[in-house]
Design goal:
Layout (H helix, E strand, L loop, with lengths): L3 H6 L3 H12 L4 H9 L7 E7 L5 H14 L4 E7 L12 H4 L1 H4 L4 E7 L11 H10 L4 E5 L16 E6 L6 H5 L9 E4 L7 H15 L9 E3 L8 H17 L2 H26 L2 H16 L5 H12 L2
Parallel strand pairs: 1-4, 1-5, 2-3, 2-4, 5-6, 6-7
Helix pairs in contact: 2-7, 4-10
């Protein structure tokens, strides 16, 4: 445990997995390790992938990763899954679906449950991105849970956000406009061997014409057949083009500031919740205040203010 940070920095997969587990479980020891590795972060390009269930996100990630590995790049994959109401763990288990990649030493895959978090991400995902970044991963792919309009938090952590759509959604694209359709850096129409692909592309083009009017970058629309590996090389090229665009326009620094701001707020939120709901402290404080309320020594509003004042000192 003493040299877990050093092992993470050297790319040791067991140490990476151990530190991720500590971070997920809010273990106090994780804080010191995160402090040690933070100066070594900021090098990886983070790709967020979102879209409705059944759009082929995992297959696309599989093919993307294969291409990146052919170019000698190390890849980290964070697959956010729905949380089991019984165990609190991830239900779908993307590591099973990507077993071939899991055998590659240059790929690290972690499935995470949302644990009640909205927005398609898990609470500890910011720590996990930093851990994989510090461990030497060149590309980190974050796959959201895939539940619809709520999938917008991924833009707070990703440098490049891919929104995957499949032919046949019809009016659903109109419905999605107010949600995930607005966050794309690249649109991908996957399963392009299906009927209706031309209509789907035309609908997205119509949306892009409106949303990108007057902007210096028009959001590209690509078609892929991930299960056949078609369109993947073109997608990687567009991801690289977007990374160059971000660095040229200084938007890259803006994106990173947004990520750190969101991460900071999330850490504060978790610590406040832990403080408030510390079972022994909270129960004792509430019991005492209830006694005072019953004796008319204090009113409920003042009691609530007293609890919050201890947090806000």
């Amino acid at each position: 445990m003493k040299d877990i940070a050093k092992k993470v920095l050297s790319g040791d997969s067991h140490a990476i997995a151990r530190l991720i587990t500590l971070a997920e479980n809010n273990d106090p020891s994780a804080i010191a390790y995160m402090k040690d590795i933070h100066p070594h972060t900021g090098k990886a390009h983070v790709i967020g992938i979102t879209g409705v269930m059944g759009s082929g996100k995992s297959t696309l990630i599989y093919e993307l990763t294969r291409q990146y590995r052919k170019h000698g790049k190390n890849v980290g994959i964070i697959a956010i899954d729905p949380t089991s109401p019984f165990s609190g763990g991830a239900l779908l288990g993307d590591r099973v679906r990507m077993m071939e990649l899991a055998m590659d030493e240059g790929v690290f895959i972690r499935s995470m449950g949302t644990r009640g978090m909205l927005g398609g991400l898990a609470s500890a995902v910011y720590d996990v991105v930093e851990i994989l970044d510090a461990s030497g991963k060149d590309v980190i792919i974050v796959e959201t849970v895939g539940v619809g309009q709520a999938e917008v938090d991924v833009i707070k952590i990703a440098d490049t956000t891919l929104v995957i759509i499949v032919p046949g959604l019809g009016d659903s694209i109109q419905t999605l406009k107010a949600g995930v359709m607005e966050i794309a850096d690249i649109y991908i129409v996957n399963k392009a061997d299906r009927d209706g692909v031309e209509q789907t592309v035309a609908e997205i083009e119509s949306l892009v014409d409106i949303s990108c009017s007057g902007k210096d970058r028009v959001t590209p629309i690509l078609t892929t057949i991930a299960k056949q590996g078609k369109g993947i090389k073109e997608l990687i090229k567009e991801i690289e083009n977007h990374e160059k665009y971000l660095k040229k326009t200084k938007e890259f620094d803006v994106q990173r500031r947004i990520r750190y701001e969101t991460e900071l707020i999330e850490i504060i939120r978790k610590r406040l919740m832990n403080f408030i709901f510390d079972e022994e402290q909270f129960k004792y404080r509430v019991e005492s205040l209830i006694d005072q309320i019953s004796k008319k020594e204090i009113d409920p509003h003042s009691a609530a203010k007293e609890i919050l004042s201890k947090i806000l000192k």
